[in-house]
Design brief:
about 200 residues, alpha+beta, eleven-stranded antiparallel sheet
């Protein structure tokens, strides 16, 4: 699958602006350059929207990394746009790759938080390759990140639940002292719930 033209243009633009300094602090500044199709989807009880039944994160976005000047960019992606297979519903992991797609790691997301204009989800980055790219190195140094999503649409999922989609709006490093990422199996719970629903329909 070809990279969307807008993302390709942004990639070339951000590459041209990369600064040569590799100095970095523990809390880089993350910007959403191109949100792309990166979306958060969740299933909640219709009677009590605060009761989360499951969620899913997928798509691709282009992020900038600054400290405070621009260091570079990276992709936050499920890999589909680069030829990877689509993940099953309930995915709570995305990849973070450098712009050359030669280095990267995984971002594991925790339980979403409600409030303000949308939903926030905290993710922790873990490298899966040696890192030499300045932007990825700075990203790794930040540890955990809070990603903000704004509402797109909601529809009934079945008689008792609602499915809603949210688009990526923001990303910021979470200070280490306030990072309380809880890596619970919400995604697995969603898959089990969907299986149970499918069984009921089949019966």
């Amino acid at each position: 699958m070809r990279i969307p033209r807008l993302m390709a243009f942004a990639m070339s633009s951000i590459t041209a602006l990369v600064v040569t300094s590799t100095a970095a602090t523990a809390t880089p500044i993350i910007g959403v350059v191109v949100p792309g199709d990166l979306q958060f989807t969740m299933i909640t009880e219709t009677a009590d929207p605060s009761h989360l039944l499951g969620y899913d994160i997928r798509g691709t976005a282009l992020l900038s990394v600054s400290d405070p000047g621009l260091i570079g960019g990276l992709y936050l992606t499920d890999g589909v746009v680069f030829g990877g297979p689509p993940p099953a519903f309930g995915s709570t992991v995305l990849f973070a790759f450098d712009l050359a797609l030669t280095e990267g790691g995984v971002v594991q997301f925790g339980v979403p938080a409600f409030g303000g204009p949308g939903v926030t989800v905290t993710g922790a980055f873990s490298p899966i390759t040696p890192l030499t790219d300045p932007a990825l190195m700075a990203f790794a140094g930040g540890g955990s990140y809070r990603f903000g999503f704004s509402f797109i649409a909601a529809d009934p999922f079945d008689d008792s639940s609602t499915i809603s989609t949210w688009k990526l709006d923001s990303a910021e490093a979470v200070p280490e002292s306030s990072s309380t990422l809880s890596l619970l199996g919400v995604g697995f719970a969603a898959m089990r719930w969907v299986r149970r629903r499918s069984s009921k329909i089949a019966s």
